[in-house]
UniProtKB/TrEMBL annotation:
Domain named Tr-type G: residues: 7-283
One GO term (biological process): ribosome disassembly
Keyword GTP-binding among record annotations: yes
CDD domains: EF-G, EFG_III, EFG_mtEFG_C
Alphabetical UniProt keywords: Elongation factor, GTP-binding, Nucleotide-binding, Protein biosynthesis
Gene Ontology MF term list: GTP binding; GTPase activity; translation elongation factor activity
Designated name of the protein: Elongation factor G
Highest taxon listed in the record's lineage: Bacteria
Family (UniProt): Belongs to the TRAFAC class translation factor GTPase superfamily. Classic translation factor GTPase family. EF-G/EF-2 subfamily.
Amino acid sequence: MAESDVRKIRNIGVIAHIDAGKTTLTERILYYTGKIHRMGEVHEGTTEMDWMDQERERGITITAAATTAMWNGHAINIIDTPGHVDFTAEVERSLRVLDGAVVLFSGVEGVESQSEAVWRQADRYRVPRLAFVNKLDRVGSDFSRAVQDMVDKLGATVLPLVVPWRDREGRLLGMVDLVRWAALRWDPADLGRTVEALPIPPEVEGEATEWRERLLEKLAEVSDSVAEQYLADGDVAPGDMVAALRQATIGRLWVPVLGGAVLENVGVQPVLDAVVDFLPSPDDVPPVQGFTASGYPEFRRASADEPFAALVFKVASDPYADRLLYTRVYSGTAAEGEVVLNATSGRKVRLVRLFRLHANHRERLAQVTAGDIVGVIASGPVFTGETLSDPEHPLLLERIAFPDPVVFFAVEPRSEREEGPLREALDRIAQEDPTFQVREDEATRQILVGGMGELQLEVQLRRIREEFGVPHRVGKPIVAYRETLARPLEVTEEWDQVLAGRRQYAKVLVRFEPLPRGAGFEFRAPVPAETLPPEFVDAVRRGIEGGLGASPVGGFPVTDVRAVLHGGRAHPADSSEVAFEACGTQALRRALEEGGTLLLEPVAEGDIITPTEYLGEVVSDLGRRRGEVQSIQTRGVVEVIRCAIPLGETFGYATQLRSLTQGRAVHTLRVTRYDEVPPGIAREVLRSRGYDG
């Protein structure tokens, strides 16, 4: 592929809060670009991108689906991501490999908690984005308020490029394009395929003129050309406005804002134009950084002339070829049948098949090149976050970080004979979904599966039954508690053992201190090398880290602890790294037993949106669940309650909330932090696990 062709690629994601209209927007895009010939609807279970049975039944996106559409001579690779908080890892790994994003907001609810979460994820990956205010046809929708919400809650510098065009009764007729200065109307007779550009109607001209003046003033800040035209003529040519907008968007200075009503087919084509006009090609983003075999940083441009480097961002079970690798090609080219290096594992694999993806369909490719997002079937094991590269020029790209599970289910086979197939199926799911973890409970010896929430685990365990044909029993949800040190103390620990006929000796002096919530583990070693050699110091660190997996007090992982190695003693003949590692583990265990621990529980934060008449019942129920109301905001006929609630109190909450509000309230809660468990509840938790605590 020539360099100029890379500039005709856009790799974008559609991200948002659940039910903001992401999949509906993607379906419209596919229809208007000619990729599909019939529009699917989420509420009818007929969408192209939500192809899994469970997605169609539940009306939500569960797994990020990829597709490619053509618009104005540009190839747009689109990833439609889930909005539900339990599937946030799908958003995380998508943002890692995308060059731009379209973020949807509801014109009624504005910026909701999960919208805020995905926005912060995009910030972390430095992804340029467009915003789209959807549902402007609904009663209570307010474009200006949604735009102000982005400023207030997200700290974004937003640049509205449209304003709604409504009749006297407030019905949405179309949108006013502030750049090209035209009123756009979509023809309902052909499902919005025809867009008519009309003169600005008098009823919206005053408001639109105000918005356009603000837009021109902002653009004049980044573009001398715009500033000169604006000062000379009081107006600016659309082409110069587009050039300035592209520069500001790619530089992440501003976020262009569009709007419409996707379900009514209003406002979709301007999104495609904006993706092409304002979002970066692979050539416009900084070169990807990786590390050579020697550990030196190296950059690769999005060019076919560079050595091949690609990141596998997702692994999916494939009914025909075991495992399909969703892969972003950052540099170079590779052909079907070619042997490449898995730079993460150090093993070579052959690219057996290459595909252009369209949801669960695919199209064979002879080769892939820089900028592509494709499906790969490889001859050997490759996992999420691993790098495929040119064997002659190895490059290791940064892996994708995923959050730890916060909730577990105990899973049992129905008979001994079914245990093997069950474990195998669980391992297959764990390879696909990095937030789905399988382990054995040390206290009960049960198989535990962990994830980000009840819904995620229910979905994956149903797949075990239906896709893999393995029946099983599931226990009640279990909270992923943690422990931390209750008070600081200093420990002197000596290890003197005979192992395999040889004496092993180590002695350490370590001060252990509790850290603030969320700090994790910290190790310091202000100990001179003549007292303890660096390899023994490192062994102590490894030993303490190894002991953090399970506390001797309650059996839970230990966090928010600092260990400071002040001193120790080594024997010239009998000391070893093994001895110092064991000594470090023992020192931690003693500190936890003597200093005591505090039990920590995950706390979920988010929004509950309820009709005003049910506000009292919802707030009272939150109080009974140890919930904390942080704010209540009135939005027309609904109240938005921002709250925090211990995760253990949210099990079954969806059912209770429906019961309290006749099914009219919705909630989005995600774990944001760990807090101390009240002493009475902590004693009950430890007692239930067989610890006298």
